[in-house]
Every structure is written in structure tokens, then in C-alpha cells.
Write a structure and sequence with these properties.
Elements lengths: L3 H31 L2 H27 L19 H28 L3 H31 L3 H11 L6
Helix pairs in contact: 1-2, 1-3, 2-5, 3-4, 4-5
């Protein structure tokens, strides 16, 4: 059984991950409207990954016999000024999520909760990947944004992403 404060913070993180899924699905829909099917596919897969993150925490709470509380998910933006703005927002969002994970780790340390601390290590590593992936995507988008040909080639390449 874990401390109520830890369980509450993990429940809030489920909500953050579900919001991430919502945000990226909204970006995916936006990319469809731009005709960028590759980016749309990439973000749709990313959205599913976020759902997986939420479920990892959900399963952990259940395993710990703690209460799972699903909170209201806020409405994400529906459009951005451009592809670049959207990917920039995704990168900023990942940095925000990293901060949230770090807060959870600190709380687990303060509560001397070794099990949750160990559980959170996966998320620490995952956030390094998440930031790297979105940052790399942002750099490529910035390079290609002014050349339609390059952008379409990048869209094709990005669309080759497969689900894990
Ligand atoms: Fe679940 Fe992209 O962080």
C-alpha cells in the first residue's frame, strides 16, 4: 500500500498522460487538415503511446491496492499557427511532462517510497527518449518548412513510424 499523497500524485499523472494523448490526437487531426498524412500518423502513434503511459500508472496503482481516480481531461487546442508551431508545442509539452515526473520522483524520495521510486525510473528514461524524439522532429521540420518538396519528403519519412 502506498501513501495517499503518492497515490493522489500518481492519479494526477494519469490525467497528464491522458491529456498528452488528447493533445497529440488533436495535433494528428490538425495535420490531416494540412494534408500531412505522415505527421498525422506519427502523432496518432504518439497519442497511443501516451495512453500506454497512463495505463502503466493505472496498473501500478491497482497492484498497490490504491484507488484509481480518473479526473476530468481538459480540452486541447484544435489548431496551431503552422506545423512548426505544433511540433514546438509538442516539444515544450514533453519538457513539462519531464518536470512532472521529476516532481513524482522527489515525492517518492521524501516519502521514502522505494517501490514507487523504482517504478518511476522507467518514466525517467522514457522522458529522455520523448524529449529527444520531439526535438529531433522539430529540428527537421525547421529545416524543411520553407521547401515544399523537402517537407513532403519529410512527411513520407515521418509516416514510416511503426507502433512499438
Ligand atoms: Fe508520457 Fe510523452 O510523455
Amino acid at each position: 500500500m502506498i501513501d495517499i499523497k503518492m497515490a493522489e500524485a500518481l492519479n494526477k499523472q494519469i490525467n497528464e498522460e491522458l491529456y498528452s494523448a488528447y493533445l497529440y490526437l488533436s495535433m494528428s487531426a490538425y495535420f490531416e487538415t494540412l494534408g500531412l498524412n505522415g505527421f498525422a500518423k506519427w502523432m496518432r502513434i504518439q497519442s497511443k503511446e501516451e495512453l500506454g503511459h497512463a495505463m502503466k500508472i493505472y496498473d501500478y496503482l491497482i497492484k498497490q491496492n490504491a484507488e484509481v481516480k480518473l479526473l476530468q481531461i481538459k480540452e486541447p487546442p484544435h489548431s496551431w499557427d503552422s506545423l512548426t508551431h505544433a511540433i514546438e508545442a509538442a516539444y515544450e509539452h514533453e519538457k513539462y511532462i519531464t518536470g512532472k515526473i521529476n516532481e513524482l520522483v522527489t515525492l517518492s524520495e521524501n516519502l521514502n517510497d522505494r517501490a514507487t521510486n523504482s517504478f518511476l525510473q522507467w518514466f525517467i528514461d522514457e522522458q529522455v527518449e520523448e524529449e529527444k524524439n520531439t526535438y529531433e522532429l522539430l529540428r527537421k521540420v525547421k529545416m524543411a518548412e520553407k521547401h515544399v518538396g523537402a517537407l513532403l519528403t519529410l512527411d513520407k519519412q515521418v509516416g514510416e513510424r511503426e507502433e512499438d
